[in-house]
Amino acid sequence: MGKSNILVLGAGGQLGQELRAVAEGSVQHYFFMSRSELDVTDLLAVKLFVQKHHIDTIINCSAYTAVDRAEDEAEEADRINHQAVAGLAELAKECGLYLIHISTDYVFRGDSHLPITEDEIPCPQSVYGRTKLLGEEAIRHTGCHALILRTSWLYSTYGSNFVKTMCRLMQEREELGVIFDQIGTPTYARDLARFLISILDQNAGCRHEGTYNFADEGVCSWYDFAEAIRHYMGYHCRLCPVRSGQYPTKATRPSYSVLDKSKLKRAFGVTLPHWQTSLEECLHKLTWTDTNE
């Protein structure tokens, strides 16, 4: 079987940049397009690109992810997270493409105390979560060949994220309050990128379809996550656990969004790293980058 031509949309984001780095060793042919280069909301431009470059697989990393701002910009969030995704799904159906779409734990209410399976009924509590769920439903409605991956607490050496924010704040302040009553699993974007590149390399003739949870192993609060960062980096900033109510936000966050990955591990035969192991890898990369610039 020949090489696949794979289009990555949203290649300027955390996951997109990690995919670019990991794909250097891939046997497939990738096209990485940031939003400024190919806007996911411009379906005609995407279609012309697909036809010109004989694309057979699209990985959609594009998303409106400003969770609080989405409460005031619901129309824009819907345009990117829902309407554009619906257009991609229609294009995939029309052209026989394989669509891989990245979704989120925010599609769930997040008030459980057991790991969330793919079969749990979604009940998003924010504009961001609702628009991401509408995107998922649009994909399923078309019946196109699609793999939807829900992930949580994504971070990377690229872009803006909790890890990089904590590293900056802990160097600037003597004391920092961090929320301890929201529980989930940090997921290193490179782990997700490795998974995607691997399944596309190894299973070129087998298109896995359906909805799966993907996150690293383990469970923690944002406070635990921050404490692990502080410990690894050797910062002297004192961390104080605080309740969510002390830091009110426009958007409601899930209080418990640990994803059950059993279905994914069975289907793909993969093992997933513990979040602390992956965090150390990411922090090592950040430290190495900072000292070699």
What is the topology?
Elements: E1 5-9, H1 14-22, E2 29-33, H2 43-52, E3 57-60, H3 74-95, E4 98-104, H4 127-142, E5 145-151, E6 154-155, H5 162-172, E7 175-179, E8 183-184, E9 187-188, H6 189-202, E10 210-213, E11 220-221, H7 222-233, E12 238-242, H8 262-268, H9 275-291
Parallel strand pairs: 1-2, 1-3, 3-4, 4-5, 5-10, 6-9, 7-12
Antiparallel strand pairs: 8-11
Helix pairs in contact: 1-6, 3-4, 5-7, 7-9
Structural overview:
The chain has 293 residues and is α/β, with parallel strands linked by helices. It has one domain: Rossmann fold (3-Layer(aba) Sandwich), CATH 3.40.50. Helix content is 40%, strand content 17%. The strands form four sheets. The protein has a six-stranded parallel sheet, sandwiched between helices. Helix 3 links the parallel strand 3 and strand 4. Helix 3 runs parallel beside helix 4 and helix 5 crosses helix 7. The protein is globular and about 55 Å long. The mean pLDDT is 95.
What can be said about this structure in brief?
The protein is an alpha/beta fold and 293 residues long.
Using only CA atoms, what is the Rg? 19 Å
Number of helices: 9
> According to CATH, what is the topology?
Rossmann fold
What shape does the CA trace take? globular
Just give the CATH class.
Answer: Alpha Beta
| Order of strands in the sheet with most strands | 2-1-3-4-5-10
Largest sheet: 6 strands, parallel
Helix coverage percent of residues?
40-55%
- CATH homologous group name: NAD(P)-binding Rossmann-like Domain
Low-confidence stretches: none
**Sheet/helix structural class:** alpha/beta
Give the tally of structural domains.
1
Give the name of the CATH architecture.
Answer: 3-Layer(aba) Sandwich
SSE topology string: EHEHEHEHEEHEEEHEEHEHH
Tell me the distance between the termini.
Answer: 42 Å
Mean of the pLDDT scores? 95
β-sheet strand percentage:
15-25%
Strand count: 12
